[in-house]
Amino acid sequence: MNRKFSLFQSHLDLAHKIWSQIVHSRCVVIDATCGNGHDANVLASLKPLKLYCLDIQDKALEATAKKLEGCSCEAVLLKQCHSTFPAEIQSGSVSLIVYNLGYLPGSDKSVTTRVQTTLDSLTQAIDLMRPGGVISITCYPGHDEGAREEQALIEWGRKLDPKDWCLSVHQFENRHKSPSVLFIQKNTLSE
What we know:
Blueprint: H1 11-22, E1 28-31, H2 38-45, E2 50-55, H3 58-67, E3 74-79, E4 94-100, H4 115-128, E5 129-139, H5 144-158, E6 165-171, E7 180-186
Parallel strand pairs: 1-2, 1-4, 2-3, 4-5
Antiparallel strand pairs: 5-7, 6-7
């Protein structure tokens, strides 16, 4: 028997619902770890003004380019680590940054995001966010580096000033080692 739940089936259902509330036609969004292009495809369907897609693997960029064929937004695909962002992206200009951490499904599992590069990325990401903007991070604690990464990111997020940032963590507590989604939103009243 296939059971369905009315609010969301997976962590991505919740993420997509939040993304759809953030992205509009004047937005700049970033898929910081584009992988097989599934998130980039969802983001492009929300019709942002500009979509940046980053990944270190050619296979990931090729898959993402294929998913984005015919999209109506300006998509920029860049072969680079998520630890840095393109210099052309201005501070305070980004509405949404999406991270789907871990390794590229169907590829070499030793090539994975790492705690330090992800923390380096988030340190830069918070400067790029516009008021009301969201950083969406999917973590996979089912493998060792993923578990370390999830814990480090939650600890990092807890140190953000609550006057300026809101951190929310979603995880299915009754699903063993299930993915988690962290949402970090910049206060709309920040100066």
